[in-house]
């Protein structure tokens, strides 16, 4: 379904901010908080974020690369995310982040004790909660953008 966007309006700004301002602004604040307040390393952050983008099919999210202090992941990082099980480009934390994102999105009932034991060996409880909240935000907002066709209307800002 495509939402009718008035001419001259930014699609995401209009849908999130004007159509449902009470919910949309809170959602926007959560979305921003995930990027502004993360304590996770860039590689595990992007591994989880990109895996959700791949699952959602959000074109905007697939094109986006998080930048920290002028640093972004390498150009072929998204390919490594697709192959998270076998790539040699990931350390254990990045591999687990991609796995967790995939399982959270596609099989959250299958998150068993073996998985949690592996997570606990590489992440603190604080990091696990933060990663979970981030994955949840990316899942819902990327899917919303994709379902409403907003991802095809948005363009990445030029920096």
UniProtKB/TrEMBL annotation:
<protein>
    <submittedName>
        <fullName>Alkylhydroperoxidase AhpD family core domain-containing protein</fullName>
    </submittedName>
</protein>
<keyword id="KW-0560">Oxidoreductase</keyword>
<dbReference type="InterPro" id="IPR003779">
    <property type="entry name" value="CMD-like"/>
</dbReference>
<dbReference type="GO" id="GO:0004601">
    <property type="term" value="F:peroxidase activity"/>
</dbReference>
<keyword id="KW-0575">Peroxidase</keyword>
<dbReference type="InterPro" id="IPR029032">
    <property type="entry name" value="AhpD-like"/>
</dbReference>
<feature type="domain" description="Carboxymuconolactone decarboxylase-like">
    <location>
        <begin position="28"/>
        <end position="102"/>
    </location>
</feature>
<dbReference type="Pfam" id="PF02627">
    <property type="entry name" value="CMD"/>
</dbReference>
